[in-house]
What we know:
64 residues; mainly beta; 4-stranded mixed sheet; 12% helix
Amino acid sequence: xxxxxxxxxxxxxxxxxxxxxxxxxxxxxxxxxxxxxxxxxxxxxxxxxxxxxxxxxxxxxxxx
Length: 64
């Protein structure tokens, strides 16, 4: 089964979602913009992730 990830990137935090092929939400979580924390949350889904999309608008600060 393929899974899909979406990240809604805000200035201080991101909302992470993982959905399956039937659009069932398997994970939805707000996290600080710390790459290590985001990757840690995605570890259980890693082998099945077909892709990940990051959405951001209006940020003046770069994500590092």
